[in-house]
Amino acid sequence: MAATASRVLELLSLLQTHRQWPGPELADRLGVTERTLRRDVERLRGLGYRVDAVRGTAGGYRLEAGSHLPPLLLTEDEAVTIAVGLRSAVAQGLVDGEHTTLSALAKFEQLLPPALRARTDALASALRTSPSGGVPVAADLIGTLALACRDAERIRFAYRSRDGNETSRSVEPHAVVSHGRSWFLLAWDRDRADWRTFRLDRIADVFGTRVRFPPRPVPGGDAAGYVRTGIRSVRAPLRLDVVLHASIEDVRMWLGEWGAGLVDEGGDRCVWPLSGESVAHLVSMLAWVPGDLGFELRGDHSLLRQVSKAAKRVAAAARWSERGAHAAARAETGDGPSV
Asked: Long-range CB contacts (< 8 A, 24+ apart) of 146-152?
C-alpha cells in the first residue's frame, strides 16, 4: 500500500508540470504497466484531481488547470534546504531577485508547522549572500528556455553579440548553465551545424516552434564542463595541449569536470587542451596531472619555453625549501654540525 501511495504522489508530481504526457512515456517513468497507470489516474480522480485523458496517437494525460495542490508535507531537512535555496537565489543574477525571494519565502513559511517556521525564520535573518555582479536575467526567460531543453523543442531567438551585432538564431537547446556571474544556454546551432554557448542576457524574443528534435550527446558528456571550457578558451589567450599517456576513461576519472574537453588519440593516449590567462595559470593546471602519469606538451615553442622556465623555478624553490627543512630537522635532533 505504501508503494502505491508513493507512486501516486510521483504521478501527481509529474502531472503538475502541466505538460501532456503520452501514456507509454508516463508509465515508463513510473516503472509500471499502462493498465496500472490507468488505475493510478483513477485514484487521483477519486481524490478530487481533474486529470484529463485524450485518446489516440497524439493523446495522453494532463492535469487540468485549477486542480488544487495537496498539503505541503516536508521533513525538517527538506524545508531547510528549500529555504537555503530561496535565499541563495538572490545571488544568482535574477531580475528583482531579492523581492521575488522574500515573497516566495513568505508564502512558503505559511505552509510550515511552527517548529520548521522558526528554523526558516532564523535562516532568513542570518543567511547573507553576495550579489553576482553580472547582468540580471529574467526568471521567466530561464523558465522558458529550461522547458524547451526538457521537451527537446527547437526555438528561435534574437541574439546580440559582444560587439553589438544582432542575429537570428535557430537552435536545439540542451541545457541552461549558471557559471560565475552569468547564465548561459548550451545549444546546437542549426545554421552553423555546431555547438554554441549563448549568454541569456543577450537573448531576446524567444519563439517556440513546437518542433521536437532527437537530443545530441554533448562533447565530453558534461554540459556545465563544456560551457566552462568554452568560456575559458574565449577569455584565455594562451593555449597548449597536454598529451597524457593513459586511456581517456581513466583520465576523466582523475580530472572530473575539468576533463570536459579531452580528445581520444587511441592507444591509451588522449589530449587535454589547456587555456590560461598567464603562464602561471597554465603551470598551476598542470599540477592536476597525477604524479605517476606520463605526459608531454604540445604548443607554440615560445610558450613551451616560458612554461618550462616557470616550472624549473617552482622545482628549484621546492628543492631549496626541502633542504632547509632537512637542516632544521637535523639541528633539532643534534645531528647537525657543531659550532
From this structure: 146/176, 148/173, 148/206, 148/208, 149/173, 149/174, 149/175, 149/176, 151/19, 151/212, 152/212, 152/213, 152/214, 152/215
Coil, strand or helix at 77? helix
CATH number at residue 209: 2.30.30.520
- Residue 73: the pLDDT is 56
Q: What burial class does residue 168 get, using C-beta atoms within 10 Å of its C-beta: 0-12 exposed, 13-18 middle, 19+ buried? A: exposed
Secondary structure (3-state) at 243: strand
Dist CA 311 CA 238 (whole Å): 16
Q: What percent of the chain has pLDDT over 90?
A: 15
Domain with 256, as residue range(s), is 226-313
Q: Which domain CATH number covers 252?
A: 3.30.70
- Answer whether residue 232 is part of any domain: yes
Q: What is the pTM of this model?
A: 0.48
* Length, in residues, of the chain: 339
> Cell triple for residue 180?
560565475
